[in-house]
Amino acid sequence: MAKIEFELFNNQLLQQLVGANDANLNLIEEMLSVEITTIGNQIHIKGDKNNCEKAKLALTDLYNKVSRSIEIGEQEVKAAVRMHNGTEKDNTQKTDINLSDIVLKTKKRHIYPRSQTQAKYILEMMNNELVFGLGPAGTGKTYLAVALAVSMMLEGTIDKIILSRPAVEAGENLGFLPGDLKEKVDPYLRPLYDALYEMLPNEQVDKKIAAGEIEIAPLAFMCGRTLSNAFVILDEAQNTTPMQMKMFLTRLGENSRMVVNGDLSQVDLPRGSVSGLKDALGTLRNIKGITSVTFTAEDVVRHGLVSKIVLAYEKRKKEEND
Question: How many percent of the chain have pLDDT more than 90?
């Protein structure tokens, strides 16, 4: 049994850190199997030595956040613990940047990574022209890509944001849906609109879409174009064909970058079809400037049940394949 003691000097910030009825401390205790008590300005942590160290690091990160007037709640606490509770594989992916200091600034909010994988993903998008984000829903792949795109546009680094998805019918036929083409495909693109409206005032999103500074379109609309000075995001890329993927990737122009996201366990293509995402990963491996980041159920940042649901499906699939 190890014990760590340290002191935080601002009483007001300490109250924000521990939360109402010590809710934040209780959550850390539950996640790391440690015991945390406060005596005045001192924090005492008891438990396994490694877990005590992780708890101290998480508390320090959270204290730094409240010091910068960032409100913390359950999701921020869970994120702080995850950032220091990675697997051995995660710990080999070291960086000179303090991961807890990574921030994407948008008009409505500042966005921080909530897991080691999310932090790595942001850094890879910053440093590479083409990044593949792989893994289950709820891990923040598209949300973080849109956040970086918005941040870069506000900084003046890029002139245009292009968001695209293949309009693959998951059990539905577009031809039988009501409305014109825009009305038919908009439901497929709704997650991209939702992300934008969380980061920019509604009127700014609408104004930039009207001006062509933000474009949200089905993948088929990308054909024949060269996309320069742009941040281009392809969502649900597992539902592309190899030909569609090649078409999309070869749109990359000067001073642009692309992010291609998908979940290879959720392919909605006709049985026997090859996913363009899977094909591209095999074809483009080891090319400088192209990298991939793989998320797992541990990186799910939605409701806690989502992670358990993903794990349950992964377990069943593994059992069926054994």
Answer: 45
In this predicted structure, the answer to whether residue 218 has a pLDDT above a threshold of 70 is yes
* Angle 54-57-62 from CA coordinates, rounded to 5°: 125
Question: What distance in Å separates the CA atoms of residue 87 and residue 160, rounded to the nearest whole number?
Answer: 37
Choice among 117-126, 168-177, 310-319 with the minimum mean pLDDT = 168-177
Is the whole model's pTM more than 0.70, yes or no?
yes
Per-residue exposure over 166-200, b if at least 16 CB sit within 10 Å of its own CB, e if not? bbbeeeeeeeeeeeeeeebbeebbebbeebbebbb
Which residue type, as a one-letter code, is found at position 103? V
Please check whether residue 204 is in contact with residue 256, taking contact to mean a CB–CB distance below 8 angstroms. Answer: no
Nearest alpha carbon to residue 81 among 144, 143, 29, 152: 29
Two structure tokens written together for 80: 């702080």
Rounded-to-integer distance, Cα 216 and Cα 163, Å: 5
